[in-house]
Amino acid sequence: MRTVETLLGGEWAASAEWIDVLDPADVRSPIARVPALTAKDVTRAYDHAERGFALWRRTSPFERARVFIDAARLIRERVDEIAADVTAENGKTLGEATGETLKAADFLEYYAGLARQGYGTLLHDVRPRHRTHTQREPIGVILVISPWNDPLITPARKLAPLLAAGNAAVFKPATETPLAGLHFARALHDAGLPPGVLNVVTGRTTEIEEALLDDPRIAGITFTGSNAVGARIRRRLADRNVRFQGELGGKNASVVLADADLPAAAKAVVAASFGQAGQRCTATSRVIVDRPVYEEFTRLLVAEVEALRVGPGSDPATTLCPLSSPKQRDSVLADLAGAVEQGATVLTGGRADTRGERANGCYVQPTVLGDVTPETAVWREEVFGPVLALRAVDGFDAAVEAVNDSDFGLAAAVFTRDLGRAYRFADEAECGQVAVNTTTTGWDVHLPFGGFRDSGTGYKEQGEEVLRFSTRVKTVAVHFGD
User: Fold this and answer.
1) Contact partners, residue 148, CB within 8 Å, separation at least 6
2) Is 431 a catalytic residue?
């Protein structure tokens, strides 16, 4: 079994104890092991980050950009190796893993360009012979906590902008999927990132949570994960001057109106719902269909779903991968059982897939549920698996009402040929991301990303908007003489 060390203070570090990394396609044998760091190790990571920040904040933006460009080149050169590890530890198809790897390089390249531009605004001053401007500065040491579903692109989305702005980071990858984040760290390290600017804490969260969250040197925390954990972090920060950026749960809806191109809508909904086995923050999990086309659309949708091929992500023929862990598989199966108990009808799928070699993996059949009401738990609560629930409504207004009848507000889509309705939907949907005639997934690196309501916090990710989280604004007035 391969041993992979972690990055602390510019050095690759081992530990006395290790954590096994499992392949969700076959959980019988570990594929690698990473250090199980202790609370003392976490404190050392903050020590390194404090020193790294003192150096990195004064490093030329052009040098930061050079490191990012070189790291992006290394990721592209290593794409096959990295993608294979993403597939092995997460389960997603090799095509999805390859796309994720290349997108991580895109993030580095985008923020390399942004680092070179500088951030600030020239302002008029009422006083004669004064020139006033604002400038953005890094806030300090930021804790980055990333999830298991996108183990490379999420760290890239978070780390690239905060490092480009001159901050330092302590990075905690998901315990189930640490290899991808370590690849990202290695590319930056090999590209010349100074020691201590990025430190990777691999370990069991229950053993190091206090040291991770309570260190007084934390200036900000960026977290992607469940609402329950996000709420716990918020409470922990309640009396501290620490910024919190949270990308939390979603219950994303796609609306299919009667005038939509139904075959195209069915294909787009399936792509948005079942990519990565539904384990995307922006995955469509609710479909709201105009009643006159409900039966026809359902027929088209079920046919598309039944054409999916379940299998290991390493098989090029696979179009639906396993879930990322036995725990997640069992959670999804429990949600399905609960839906049936509440009166939902399984239109296709609905069970674990244990045929042949899949008996040792975390497979769930792609599932479509009908006879779902607004009170059904799977209609209101995030499942995070290959499960899609359908409801019929009467017209546009009822569809928008159904979209907004949720605690969440991350992403929504509408399928229609009516431009007026498309723009009305964009105005009225209470979501941070709105799509028209395309998937709820697939937001590029330069597009601000984040949800409303319980789906997130006031700080967006991606694009220039993320700088509101990772920088502070200083106003400078200069009197240049009489």
Assistant:
1) 90, 174, 175, 176, 177, 324, 325
2) no
